[in-house]
Fold each of these.
Amino acid sequence: MSRRLDSLRLRLRSLFRRHSADEELDEELRFHIERQIEQNIAAGFPAVEAHRKALREFGGVSQTKDECRDTRGFAHIESGWRDILYCFRTLTNSPGFAAIIIITLALGIGAATAIFSVTNAVLLRPLLYRDSDRLVLAWLDFYKSSMSDAPFSNAEFNDLRDGTQDVFEEMSSIMVFRAIVPREGGAAERISKAHVTTNFFSMMGARVALGHDFTTADGQPRAAQEEYVFPPPRAT
Amino acid sequence: MSESKDLLQGTLDLLILNTIRHEPMHGWAIAQRIQQISEEVLKVQQGSLYPALHRLEHQGWIRAKWGASENNRRAKYYSLTKVGRQKLASETSKWSRLSAAVNLILAEG
């Protein structure tokens, strides 16, 4: 564990304090060469020759430095950063080209994002209703009068519901409108409203926020009032 | 190619770990010691030595610390860590087994 931490500490140090790590490496290698020179002098070489000999034996300093740097582990990030800087410099040399690339990318990313957000909302994300994978929507189309999206009449709805009981588990109906209502201050407000059958909310798994949901009894037509018609219909 | 390089690299690691097992040493002294003890047979070029030292430090087997050298200059001293000591023991026995096996084969010829 502490070994991992040590290694991480070294890596971070070499990333954020790259210059200091490089300087330390320089100093370490310089010390090596100086010790070698001293040894050469001790062995009887004249100073200049001792110096030359030490450097010659030492070999490629920059190659060694690169190899040491590679062991630090963040070398690829450093070189990646260099690539980005190079790319940036090249682009600033040809601003027109850069602008075209940036606009192309922006439009492309924007279009892709827009398409995805619509696809995500419409196709990928499930509807918020209960059993949304089993919900279907039915409506009327009148081809001859080229009228589509037409509502069922009450009688048609009842026939459809009663005739498809072995197909659909439940059927409810909704019809949406817009309405203008007066606000308290006298201004007008446009609202969306809908007529629904009594089972609509329970079928969709919705809860009524205030008050109580409709009951089946609410949907029953009231008993006809006794009417008096003049003149009285003739008995047949 | 890469296998023989691996073998050499592992051997150099083993030599370095063994050289600094008693006291912290700087790079130049490590190279000198290896050369002396091997009776001038093994010459460790700095081009292999320093990358190896830095790699071993990153693996957590050795630890580096700046200190004053024998000629009173700042030098980077390397010493074994606990893990490095364990590694040295296991690598040494591995090496003994390997060289003993090679010797057996050669002795038979």
Amino acid sequence: MNQAIASALPSSMNHVWIMVCSALILVLGGSVTSIPAAWLTTLGALAAAAAAVSGMQTLGSFADAQVLWSSAVVVDATAIATGVICALATAAVLAVSVKSQTISQSAERHWPGLVLLTSSSLMFAVHANHLGTLLVATEVAALGQVALLGVGRAQARGSEAASKAVVVSAVAFGLSAFGMALIFGGSSGLMDYGSLAKSFFAHGPSAVAMVGAMFVIAAFLFRLGAAPFHMANADLIDGAPLPSSMFSVSAFRICFAVATLRFLKLGFLSPSVSADVTGIAQILGWVAALSMLVGAVGAVRQESLKRTLAYLALSQIGFSVLAIVALSQGSHLAVTALGASLLGQVLALSVAFAALSQLSAAHEGFPFVDDLAGLAQSRPLLAVSLAVSLLSVSGMPFTVGFGGYFTVLLSVFSTPLMLPLGCVGLLAFLIGLYPTLRVIVAMYFRESARTWPDHNPPGAAAILCTGTLTLLLFGIVTAPWLAWSRHLVP
Amino acid sequence: MNPLLVALVAPILGAVVVSFVPNLFARLQYLASLFASAVGLAAVLFVTANFSSTDASVQFAIKRSFTAEAGVAFSLGVDGISLGFLLISALLCFVSLLVRGRFSSTVGFHFQQTCSAMLLVQAALVGVFCARDLIVLWCFWALLVLSSFLLVGLSGGSRRLLASSKVALSGFASLAILLGLFLYLGGQAHAIGGRFEFDLDVITRVLMPLSSQYVAMGVALVALGLALPLVPLSGWWSDTHAQSSALACSVMFLGPALYVFIKIVVPCFPLAAFNLMPWVAGICLVGSAIAATASYFEEDIRRRVAWVGCVQVSIAVVGLSSLNAQGVMGALLISGVSALSLGGLMLCLNHHPSESSSTTPLDAEFVTFLPKAFAFSSALLPGLGGFAAAFTAMAGVAAADRTNAQAGMPRPSLEIEPLWLVIGSVFCAIAVGAALVSALSGSAGLARTERLGLRAVPLWALLVLLLILGVRPQLWYAHVEACTNRYVVEMQKKVQHANASPQAPPHLFPNARSMLVSTLQAKP
């Protein structure tokens, strides 16, 4: 009996089980009105942190990849490492949302359970080893995201965000399902990754399978908000409550990116398919260039801090896609570059949103850039945190963001065919600095009679201090985390 | 502990400490900044005192792997070329803090941030001039641009925000271009040796085809022309000086662009540098003649001083264009003397309404000896360093043909008669001299300086240093000579080598690959 349970629920997925069980407990606990909502949220944060610790332990002693449940899921270092980051990001989101005034009171009690459920689905999407598993896991996670986006106190904007998320999710689901059906048809009825990879590497994907792959990739890009599918993304992040936005750019993003990469590595990116920058790699090259530029230029035009961050996040996605293109060209450094880019952006964006959550609490709403005048005088540590996180998002040296930017650009510049893309990357880097400097100008150079109330929810303050120090420490001591980030690439 | 590390870390720690001292204790903030800056300066003085002037190699070296896979190492060291830059930057930062960092309305509301930014500038300058790895150098340069942006924006004239934006725009544009160039060089090393390398000693052995060298040199010139600045890419320079505080202005004359030009661009693209440099110098001189003329008609003395800085950089580039030991040593001395004299002059000036509340704006007759002396030095008049530097550089330019012929070098493909370069430089020197002296002579009534009292003591020390350099420039040359000679000889070897094998396909050095591979294999 024990053996049967052990084979059905392997210990190497303990971090997932912890998340799932905690989610179910918190969903049930949410209906017990005598338990304060803050307790539930704190419990959720602790559970997610415990899942991350468990994942780290598993990763330390992990040997070979295991395929489970009739090839439906795979347990490998990539899935566990991504799970760890997802769990950590979830813990940070929940810590920030303790006593957050941006989530509607009616949803406060169900919030932590919902976040953990969505995280669990995301983890399954990363573990997916079968097209069916991938479709179901991503759709459940997307539904969770829709719910998370719509629970803000600012009802109108939250509802708008949620309705747009529904549309995005529906389109993405349609594309995924259609694409997977085409792959199924084009590969003589194969659905699991192992068989598909074997078939594609032996004969190359059929034309029908390639068309199907493009549909699936388009769906993933829709969900990641990469250009040219980015139209609704800024509205989603802007309209949602801050913890939801933070969840979207951290846990949601890294899990979807890794799931996309696992799918692409079935054979759609192998040099035999695209020996030159052609085919899917070329399409991804355009996506990368567009995302980097649209993100950077879009951020320049924004007044709202949240929208600024949303566009900078889009630019970051462009850099990650650029690393995928470099990977397709056989650049060895691209593995590190991709991992570093993903990890760096999740860390930097999480800290930036944590800083923003404190601002929103003090400002009673989502601040505009000009509202930050005098922040450095009245709240110096918060100003430093926001400045460091934005500099990191922009890829400035001595912050974690530089590791990602540098390795991505180096892997691109070492591939002669990709030099134009590298130049676009440099241009995006340059343009992307403007919004960051603009925020610094407002905080440090402009004076204001206004005083910012010292509202410090304990969870958010802890996340902010730890996060800022991490951004700086990882920016100076780069080798260990760059090496670790290779785990994030299958 | 390596003294270079102390010189780098002390100001950074100081900046962190100052950030945590509450604003109520402004005097404590000031003392902490001074202490951190002084520790950095003491470490640099220790390096200078223990520097072996006969040794042309890198001294006080320290190296730790940063990211082995990407070939980046935290590598620091100092040689004869970087020593002068290092010493002057540490000295100037300390003196600026001492003279202008007093807690007063000079820096006003943002005193704490200004002190931190100033310390970061000092650390960044030390980092740039000690870095032995391209990416580490780039990172410190980025820190320098960011901290200069803060320094300019925090205090100064009413349009300082615009000025700080210009600093950031030009600085980061230059940095983005340079990053592309450095990554390309790293990629070339990877293509030849199978691994990424950014070590300065290794990367200068990556010898590219001539066509690539021309393109890369052109790109580098645009990037460094923005940062140096060289006319016509210097639009931001005078505006920035007009609006910045004296503290910010004083440390901006020792930018790392000329250093990067000497240490990286010329050795990495030797053939292109050899062939293009005379024309580059010619174009610089035309630009600087325009700048010198413009400076004469400027109403604002800060703008005049800024233009003088542009002209002096151009004269340094002219000296460098000779690519012989005299010319390079002269160029190095010009950049050092220029930073000291123009920085000192800026520290004497007090111009902005926001800065004048605690000071006494003076009429023409009060313009004291100190700013005049700095102006004379900037005007390259004999006896104050500037003249000796310019004379050495011009002597190098005049002797370029002869030294090249002695070394068996070919003639540059884009040649300019050295005499024209010398005449142009002398014209520019006279024009800026006239502009500066007329500004401070009282007739124009443009200058405003303040009584500095005891705070003038460090400025007098700077003046004495300039006097020593003017009377005994050998003291400087003795430290630089060995390294400069090796630099020039290596450069000549590369050019001769290529010239001796003209049949090599697209001017690729025949043994470039073997040189690099053997270097890479010798490394652990």
